[in-house]
Amino acid sequence: MHGILDAKGVVTKLNEYDITPNTMFVSWSSWHFDLSLLREWLDAEGHHNVLPNNKRLCLLSKKFRGNLERTIGKDCFRGCHFPLILPFVFPLLFGEDHCLTGRNHNALIDAQQLALMAIMFVDLCKPPEERVV
Question: What whole-number distance in Å separates Cα of residue 85 and Cα of residue 131?
Answer without folding.
Answer: 25
